[in-house]
Amino acid sequence: MNLRELLSIPYLLEAEAVETEPGQWLVRLAYPELPGCTAEGAVVEDALKDLERRRIEMIVSLVEQGKEPPIPRAPLAAADPLWTADDLGVSARVAALLNGAAATQGV
Questions:
Q1: How far is Cα 16 from Cα 64, in angstroms, rounded to an integer?
Q2: How would you classify residue 34: left for phi > 0, otherwise alpha for psi between -120 and 50, otherwise beta?
Q3: Which of 46, 12, 45, 18 is nearest to 31 (CA)?
Q4: What is the pLDDT of residue 106?
Q5: What residues have CB less than 8 Å from 90, skipping those under 6 apart?
Q6: Distance CA 91, CA 53 (A)
């Protein structure tokens, strides 16, 4: 599987609201199929963006190390991981890796 496909795999998302002290709440998000891929914040949208950044960076790091991330299901055909990476402001190395892979595959 290439990097574009690996970044298009849909992972289960767990979410919970946690009261840290009376009247103070955080949302805690995780992709349990990617061990250690968690995020939390006061605003769900911010926590989700942080979680997505972590997911992408984790998968890219595993690929760079020659390891395969968990593949619990097939990649989404309509996903565009490059758009997601750009939208999240993820490091330029993700875009470079995706563009490099596309160039070598004639995509």
A1: 32
A2: beta
A3: 12
A4: 43
A5: 53, 56, 57
A6: 9
In the chain, alpha helices (H)? 3-6, 44-64, 81-88, 92-105
Give the whole-angstrom CA distance, residue 102 versus residue 22: 51
Cβ(82)–Cβ(98) below 8 Å: yes
Asked if residue 28 lies in contact with residue 45, where contact means CB atoms within 8 angstroms, the answer is no
Distance, in Å, from the CA atom of 27 to the CA atom of 102, rounded to the nearest integer, reads: 36
Model pTM score: 0.84
Q: What is the pLDDT of residues 38-57, one digit of tens each?
A: 999 999 999 999 999 999 99
CA atoms of 94 and 45, how far apart (whole Å): 22
CB under 8 Å to 88, separation ≥6 — which residues?
Answer: 49, 52, 53, 56
Distance between CA atoms of residues 6 and 79, nearest Å = 11
